């Protein structure tokens, strides 16, 4: 989840529930040492009583709480004899807390929010309830985008519903582009040339802020060049993977991304250690001409020196008109196997993640909806969102839906690989092969 992810994408704003926040690294580290779980499945389905919900605590939680309170009030009104108790838990300590809940049904919630990269691990731990039947019968589910649904699907079964999604695009300085007579890049080659032109003519600026620890900023370059992080073994949906980061196409993408670390763009001595948070900070503070940031980075940038002097376009792919695939991060909502209120808990899950609630969460927090029709409405009202929505609709991708991904993130395998290359300690071929070996070990555990 984002924890480490959190380092990579630390919570820059209240809107980062961190779509990315809940997405990956540091929190994942906690996953590795969390207690093992036993089967605490319940066969009870009580039709009244108290339902407990755990949601993530945001930096500014009041707007989120207001939306959830309204949804809960409506649910309680429609379900006589029910009471919903919502607790907001810290994102940084979620891994241990949720694992402990899997082992202790008496204190466990019925419904939880979790980062979408955590799904496979929680399923493996036996904590989440298979709600495939209810999901398939849920009318709203037909409008959920495929990548969001993929993040919930393990072994062909569905383990929850998506709450919101986050994706990255290219932020650029309109004042700098005007001064240097530049146009927004439309290909990867143009992106690199533009970055180096900015650095050449404005030595006080990084052309494109990049980070050696910014895994999710690097992924689009790998994917755009035809590479992948891993490939699925056996039939689609098997959720068994082997590393592909050392394939020829993936290596090409790695070479492109790491070529951006140098005195002609973003000096390795400075940028090799940066995560996503650092690149956005550099852009927001006026020290970079461009940056790869999420829709959730908006608040941090608006609070910086470049307010009113930037725009966003999709990150360009290799060919003109192509959009580089971007990681679709976000959070999901699921029901615990231990619930004694299965029907009510699933109903509540659908209320909390339904179209009405997602629309209100966007208005309150800026969280992008996972329903394509609702997202389209949002983009019509807010032009800022359009590049992110186009990226989600055209080229969004997800990390391997494997419990091993948590270990890969926690061990910082990919950031280490990038930093080894940028520092000159290893060449691309050696670094990617070493990373692939470590990834395969994680997938096989």
TrEMBL record:
GO terms for molecular function: maltose binding. Residues 1-29 form the signal peptide. Transmembrane segments: none annotated. It comes from the Bacteria. One of its GO terms (cellular component) is ATP-binding cassette (ABC) transporter complex, substrate-binding subunit-containing. The keyword Transport applies. Keywords: Signal, Transport. GO terms for biological process: maltodextrin transmembrane transport; maltose transport. SUPFAM superfamilies: Periplasmic binding protein-like II. The keyword RNA-binding does not apply. InterPro entries: SBP (IPR006059). Belongs to the bacterial solute-binding protein 1 family. PANTHER family: MALTOSE-BINDING PERIPLASMIC PROTEIN (PTHR30061), MALTOSE_MALTODEXTRIN-BINDING PERIPLASMIC PROTEIN (PTHR30061:SF50). This is Extracellular solute-binding protein family 1.
